[in-house]
Design goal:
257 residues, 42% helix, Rossmann fold
Amino acid sequence: MASYKMLVKDVIKQADVLLEIVDARFPDETRNSAVENEISRFNKPFIIVLNKCDLISKEKLEKAKSRFSKIAPTVFVSGKDRYGTTILRHKILEVVEASKIKDRDILVGCLGYPNTGKSSVINGVTGRHRAGTSAVSGHTKGVQYVNAGSRIKFIDTPGVIPTDEFDEIMQGLLGVKDATHLKDTIGVALKIIEVMCSGNRAALESFYKVSIEDEDAYEVLELIGQQNKFLKKKGEVDETRTAIRIIHDWQKGQFIV
């Protein structure tokens, strides 16, 4: 706990502007008020970056942006396909324009939970694969300085906010832990089904080629298992195997919420 706080404070001290990278699917859960308060205490400007915007409907994205813009300048991007990264570059320059930084690079600190896509955002802005990325949480092991051109230099950090702030279901939803490291794979898969059924049931039906009417999450899991022939010897649905498949597909970004 102490080491992460020291790292956050050091990045904030160094940076001219901070990016708080959040998961657009769960923006409230992946913001951190303590980090934002620390940024304010040092009187540093920050930008909220709603990453993974390709995994959320346009309507929900606009609502989130409208809400968070009251807190700080907000940009939504997709680190995966580099959507919005040019806008983010311009926003960074705009935010620091009033400062008197001359004859040196603008240092941009990136903060956020593991697996929110900090390194992917950096690579999107630089236009090159400069920061290491991985589908597995915790890939960035130490602070890296990444030159993005136009006087912008990123300070890339590991997921510097402790993951034990989340319960296991949230860790599965955010991809902090993959299915092989989750104890309750069925519980996580049921939550994914609930999120999809309330947000975009049609996408879930289309992807797994099932028809969902009044079934609860467990019954939907059974339908998916039957459709994919994830069966035990006696013809019963292999719930664990089905759950692992659902978690894997979710964490690979197969669904738009």
